[in-house]
Specification:
Layout: E1 34-40, E2 46-52, E3 60-64, E4 72-75, E5 79-80, E6 88-94, E7 102-107, E8 114-118, E9 129-133, E10 137-138, H1 168-174, E11 182-185, E12 188-189, H2 194-199, H3 210-233, E13 238-241, H4 268-274, H5 283-286, H6 297-307, E14 319-323, E15 326-330, H7 364-374, E16 383-387, H8 400-412, E17 417-420, E18 426-433, E19 436-437, E20 449-453, E21 476-480, E22 486-492, E23 497-504, E24 510-517
Parallel strand pairs: 9-11, 10-12, 11-13, 15-16, 16-17, 17-20
Antiparallel strand pairs: 1-2, 2-6, 3-4, 3-7, 5-6, 7-8, 9-22, 14-15, 18-19, 18-20, 18-21, 22-23, 23-24
Helix pairs in contact: 1-3, 7-8
Length: about 525
């Protein structure tokens, strides 16, 4: 089945083209909203984020149920930046909305247009729906994944695009009517690949220009993403958590994080754009967020962590939300494992980084997950999906400390599906618990089904599996071994049936599909 059947690659779907290593142009009106972002904040609230090339005194959004009647307004004091950023991130929360209703909105600027979004389904709504999942997605075009051929030493394989292929962003935009929102658990833009691209001669510039190149790649990714969604597909909520490539400007590569400027360490750019956008943010307690000019992102996150003492949630790293018949847990596989376990991106964690921890105490994330999953009412949200970045069931590169920290909780509370990326190919594993396959397979297993799909596409291409002849030994039941880019569709058919599809971005082919039955 082709989800893109009959849809040509037309000019309207070709990404914006920027000259190599050049920053996207600055609009004449510095209040022009760019890099727009949307997130659910419960069924009766929505958060809108965007960037501008000057600080806004009072970011404001007008909205309403008709494009001709956007008379309601919401404002905030949230307009923040960090030293290497050219832009300020703005966030506004819209409240007193109707569940699952289309609204139209206009960001206040002399150079903005009317957009739209649909609010979340309320918890307990068991109407069938589809969600899209994507992980490990970077820049497409001259400065990232493109039709250019190259050889990248140290990678098993690099796959350039073929002429006429849809990128994953294009495929998601073209098929936006087929799903209701997007889940992206980590790795955005791959701006930290700038030095590799520079050393390979893939982009022009000097190492001294690294901070500008990094920000340029990040801007390009966010601009392409929002350009396609807001112009061609209608706006979709985009729910995120962190991956390793958000951590700093080099992510474990020589000469190391210590050489990164302030503003490109400790998840600063990710925090700046998404901390107040994801749900359950205690921004009303903390008030205006500081400019990150002295490494204050860690201080800010710890203050937020302390303010979130009731639930323990700390967006955008760990939090949860409900949508219809599903409870979603977003968790952080990069920092804050608790119980004395060193996380990968922390000092001594194996990634040669020094990021986090962000919790106000050692076990904040683990305690949050325990409380959150224990509180799920399966009569209201029968399905529970957990999404993080680094997998522990995978053919290579398994995160064993992640397994030690999180798997006991996922098993204890009956999580149905665990969704990951990090490894740059597609793998579907059967239900697994404590390294053992559930004998019931997809027929009412007690163990979570594990999915790995880090194949959305970016400069580094795809990964070959290290032992493709031994996939059953890892519990892998289907895989695409580093040949295609793609994403997932999760079709919640009813309280007992979930269809999971792996979709090829280039042409919309459904590469693999399985239906999970759970007797909730």
């Amino acid at each position: 089945m082709k989800l893109l059947s009959g849809l040509p690659v037309c000019a309207a779907l070709v990404p914006l083209v920027f000259a190599q290593t050049e920053l996207p142009p600055i609009p004449a009106d510095l209040t022009t909203p760019v890099q727009q972002r949307l997130a659910f904040n419960g069924p009766m609230s929505m958060r809108i984020g965007w960037s501008t090339f000057q600080q806004l005194e009072q970011p404001t959004v007008y909205f309403g149920e008709s494009p001709h009647a956007i008379f309601r307004s919401a404002s905030s004091q949230s307009s923040t930046t960090y030293p290497t950023s050219r832009t300020w991130s703005n966030t506004v929360t819209l409240t007193m909305l109707k569940p699952y209703t289309t609204y139209y909105y206009k960001i206040v600027s002399t150079n903005s247009t009317i957009g739209s979004f649909k609010t979340a389904r309320p918890a307990g709504d068991h109407t069938p729906f589809t969600m899209a999942g994507v992980v490990d997605m970077g820049v497409f075009g001259p400065d990232g994944l493109s039709t250019r051929q190259m050889s990248y030493t140290g990678k098993a394989i690099v796959n350039s695009l073929n002429p006429g292929d849809h990128t994953t962003i294009q495929a998601l935009a073209a098929t936006a009517s087929q799903y209701e929102f997007i889940l992206h658990p980590g790795d955005f833009a791959y701006a930290d690949a700038w030095l590799s691209e520079l050393n390979l001669g893939y982009i022009n510039g000097t190492q001294a220009q690294g901070p500008q190149i990094y920000e340029g790649l990040l801007e390009q990714f966010l601009l392409r993403l929002t350009y396609l969604y807001t112009r061609y597909a209608g706006s979709k909520a985009y729910m995120v958590t962190a991956g390793n490539h958000e951590s700093n400007c080099l992510n474990g590569k020589s000469p190391g994080e210590a050489s990164c400027p302030i503003g490109q360490t400790n998840f600063t750019g990710f925090i700046n754009r998404y901390a107040e956008l994801m749900p359950e943010t205690p921004s009303t307690i903390l008030g205006h967020r500081p400019r990150f000019d002295t490494g204050l992102e860690g201080v800010y996150m710890k203050a937020r962590a302390a303010a979130a003492s009731t639930s323990g949630a700390l967006p955008p790293f760990w939090y949860s939300f409900d949508y219809g018949m599903v409870h979603y847990l977003m968790f952080d596989t990069e920092t804050d494992f608790g119980n004395g376990i060193i996380a990968p991106d922390e000092v001594g964690g194996g990634a040669a980084d020094s990021d986090g921890p962000f919790g106000s105490y050692m076990n904040q994330q683990i305690d949050f997950i325990e409380r959150d999953l224990a509180a799920v009412d399966r009569s209201v949200t029968p399905w529970v999906i957990a999404a993080g970045h680094r997998p522990w069931y995978v053919d290579s590169g398994a995160c064993t400390t992640c397994q030690e920290a999180f798997e006991p909780l996922l098993i204890k509370h009956g999580v149905d599906v665990a969704y990951f990326g990090h490894v740059h190919n597609m793998q579907r594993l059967g239900p697994l618990a404590n390294n053992t396959k559930d004998p019931r397979g997809y027929n009412n297993p007690s163990a979570p089904v594990y999915l790995v799909n880090g194949a959305a596409g970016h400069f580094e291409g795809l990964d070959l599996m290290t032992t493709p002849d031994q996939l059953p030994n890892y519990g892998i039941e289907w895989a695409n071994n580093g040949t295609l880019y793609g994403y997932n569709l999760f079709k919640f058919l009813d309280r007992n049936h979930l269809e999971i599809q792996f979709v090829s971005s280039k042409d919309g082919d459904v590469l693999n599909s399985v239906t999970l039955f759970k007797k909730h």
